[in-house]
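Hi U.,

Before I forget, here's the chain from the pilot set. I'm dumping it here mostly so it's searchable later in email.
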Amino acid sequence: MSMKSAKEFAVWMIERFGDHQSGVYLSKSDLRELSGRQTLRQDFIADLHFELTRHGMGFVSDALKEKYYLFYLPEIHWKAVADRYANPSNVHSLGRPALSQRNG
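Structure:
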């Protein structure tokens, strides 16, 4: 199997897994085999994520880099819904402290 570029592999992933609205995950060995890569460098994963975001999808790994997750990105921007969680009672003003004179 020949090694695929991030762009080429992203297109293949969209065609293969795009119907899974809830997303899918791949193990490290699955990803190596499917992409034709012996090692998975972080720049390849970042490039793959970039290519997928152009199509409304994301691609990230877990902390141990054993599982890789392909998922649809939310269509509503977080700023559009952030205010519904805001509770004014948890915002406290710092106030301005009085300046003290130091003799030094």
